[in-house]
TrEMBL record:
SUPFAM superfamilies: alpha/beta-Hydrolases (SSF53474)
Source organism (scientific name): Raphanus sativus (Radish)
UniProt-listed PROSITE patterns: PROKAR_LIPOPROTEIN (PS51257)
InterPro entries attached to this UniProt entry: AB_hydrolase_fold, Fungal_lipase-type, Sec_MonoDiacylglyc_Lipase
Residues of the Fungal lipase-type domain: 105-244
Pfam families per record: Lipase_3
CDD domains: Lipase_3 (cd00519)
Gene for this chain: LOC108829435
Organism lineage: Eukaryota, Viridiplantae, Streptophyta, Embryophyta, Tracheophyta
Stretch forming the signal peptide: 1-23
Gene Ontology terms: biological process: lipid metabolic process
Protein's UniProt name: Lipase isoform X2
Amino acid sequence: MEQKRWFLFSLAIISCLLFFSRGRVEVLKLKSDDDGPPVYNHTLALTLVEYTSAVYMSDLTQLFTWTCERCNGLTKGFQVIEIIVDIEYCLQAYVGVAKDLNAIVIAFRGTQEHSIQNWISDLFWQQLDLNYPDMPDAMVHHGFYSAYHNTTVRPAVLGAVKRAKKIYGANISTIMVTGHSMGGAMAAFCGLDLVVNEGEVNVQVMTFGQPRIGNADFASYYSLLVPNTFRITHDRDIVPHLPPYFYYFPQKTYHHFPTEVWVRDNFSNLVSAEKVCDNTGEDPTCCRSVMGISISDHLRYFGVDMMCESWRQCNIVMGNEVERYSRKDSMGNIFLSRTVPSTETKNLPKTGVSSL
């Protein structure tokens, strides 16, 4: 009985948090440049959602050779340069080159906790707890910031970008960064890092089901530095509502950066309608206009699965065929690296992998 009372009490608090985060009052207007907003590209979104889904694959052989089931659509011909698997923090990312886009693509995997419900519950209580370097008054979520900046992921990603540019040279004009859920948060920090610290001038970021990662000041800086950013939100996906936004305290609360694209499902999910939202990051007529209560909407975007092959924590498997491309560091983290463009691995078998 006592446990039941505590559950109902917790549920009531969470419902109140969601209700007060929906307010349709004027939100902080973010700074913007004079060149006008970037243009949303639906076809590019359909392509990047496939790249984002592929990063959830646990078979590193199939991922490295781009022969996985999720690698057979709009992303055909993609050349993987680097796969990073941070064992300690259960993170995964890859970097590669999409010749049809003339772009380097960086993709980050979302959270892989045993229970996504527990991860979502934890986000209700997260506080702004880190000052972003060299951005006065900008604060961010320490966990998301650290997942990118304080793990093996950042140096491996930046190294792979440099290697891809050296290999492909002038044929590469753009860096596209993508991710889902926590992977979307990491993608945003990566895009900002590429601009601020690496001097890249043509960076595009597109995320799916991304949580809030900073306050309004951070969102304002971000929108100036990485203006070609789109956050895709799916109908009633719960995660874009987290951590909660409290409109009574716009400067002190978490605040999304622009630009949101809200995808609504109609006619039993057979048809989707997309709305490009305003430049505030917290458009009250987009996903904030509904109660974000759906986990199923979080795990599927444009009809594409955003989770591992099975409903459990991802297991990493790798065949001996790609052993010569792999290495481990002292912590057991795994890296598969390509130094030159190659077709040597394209015909490797898809089976016969072994658990690491």
